[in-house]
Design a protein that fits this description.
The complex is a heterodimer of chains A (114) and B (114). Chain A is mainly β. Helices cover 0% and strands 61% of the residues of chain A. The N and C termini of chain A lie far apart (37 Å). Chain B is mostly beta strands. Chain B contains no helices and eleven strands. Classes of the chains: A mainly beta (114), B mainly beta (114). At the A-B interface, strand 4, strand 5, strand 9 and strand 10 of A face strand 5, strand 9 and strand 10 of B.
């Protein structure tokens, strides 16, 4: 089963609109990463969250970690064409027997319409 | 300041062959992790190398092996290639083992198996 669920799977928004992407874990989160990927390319690091309730912002992107709900959200304000791409959440997820490495969701495909 | 570099960028092999992929970490980083990303999926953790030893391993068969050199660069070897091994192989580097430091990714090697 997928340990990290991202929603929505895809998103089309008009340029200038706000949007939110969610990442939910079925297990305890010990750290969460947000990355952006352009099709067929490497992952670009956006933010890392480690503490419950932590919130970080970079330019027009804000990410929050709600450790109690095992969720994180990524919010983009006043979207631009440069925001288009695949957004991936990755987390340090423990299965009880030890670290499983960094686990990723399947990604959210974001399209910005002019 | 060079980021993570991977070679080659593209590779075509046939079933049963063996392949070696290479990764040079970001300057100042000493830990290398490898991931496999199938089309439409998030990256899957293969293993992590630190101090020239495999420290953590994901759910991949022994056909997948690796090596880390004294200069921190790394190789991923895959033997007896299967059609299902076709994927984007990503290398990530960080400072120190574990997952409490940002993982910086390269652009990947696209491996196609015929």
């Amino acid at each position: 089963s997928q340990e990290l669920e991202q929603s929505p799977q895809s998103l089309i928004v008009q340029e200038g609109k706000n949007l939110t992407i969610n990442c939910t874990s079925s297990k305890t989160l010990y750290g969460l990463y947000w990355y952006k990927q352009k099709y067929g390319e490497g992952l670009i690091f956006l933010m890392m969250l480690q503490k419950g309730g932590e919130e970080k912002s970079h330019e027009k992107i804000t990410a929050k970690l709600d450790e109690k709900k095992q969720q994180s959200s990524l919010h983009i304000t006043a979207s631009q064409p440069s925001h288009a791409g695949i957004y991936l959440c990755g987390a340090d997820v423990y299965s009880g027997g030890g670290a499983d490495g960094l686990t990723f969701g399947k990604g959210t495909h974001l399209i910005i319409q002019p | 300041d060079a980021g993570v570099t991977q070679s080659p960028t593209h590779l075509i092999k046939t079933r049963g062959q063996q392949v070696t992929l290479r990764c040079s970490p970001k300057s100042g980083h000493d830990t290398v992790s490898w991931y496999q990303q199938a089309l439409g999926q998030g990256p899957q953790f293969i293993f992590q190398y630190y101090e020239e030893e495999e420290r953590q391993r994901g759910n991949f068969p022994d056909r997948f092996s690796g090596h880390q050199f004294p200069n921190y660069s790394s190789e991923l070897n895959v033997n007896a290639l299967l059609l299902g091994d076709s994927a984007l192989y990503l290398c990530a580097s960080s400072l120190g083992q574990g997952w409490n430091q940002p993982q910086h990714f390269g652009d990947g090697t696209r491996l196609s198996i015929l």
